[in-house]
Each structure stands twice: as C-alpha cells, then as structure tokens.
Amino acid sequence: MQPRMKSPLAILPDALKALLAVDKATEASELPLVTRKLVHLRASQINGCGFCNDMHAKELKKANEKD
Fold it and tell me: Could you say which of 42, 43, 54, 60 is the most buried, measured as most Cβ atoms within 10 Å of its Cβ?
C-alpha cells in the first residue's frame, strides 16, 4: 500500500514540535488517554506513517488495549 502523502515531518520538520504541543495540551483535558491514543493511531493510519502507527499501537498495548 502506498502512503497518500509523504510524512508530514519530512515535509515540515517543525511539525513535530506542533504535534507534541497538541499532545501536551490534550493531556489536561477530560478526554481519556485511550481515546486520545486511538485518535493518534487513526491519524497515523490516514497519513500512512508506519513509525507513528507502531508507536501509537505500542502505547495502546501499554494501556492494556487489545488489538
């Protein structure tokens, strides 16, 4: 399967800072951790980022979520 776009981090190197800031801001919300990580995983799937897919899947497994 071909990714629909290049990695956003390859196109915009400063994007990682923004993504980390958004993640940090959502930590203070009432949104459960698992819900946030599922959103991250889905966004990674849509973007076709294998590294991020793997990272977020591991985070969910660490939070005792099933495949």
Answer: 60
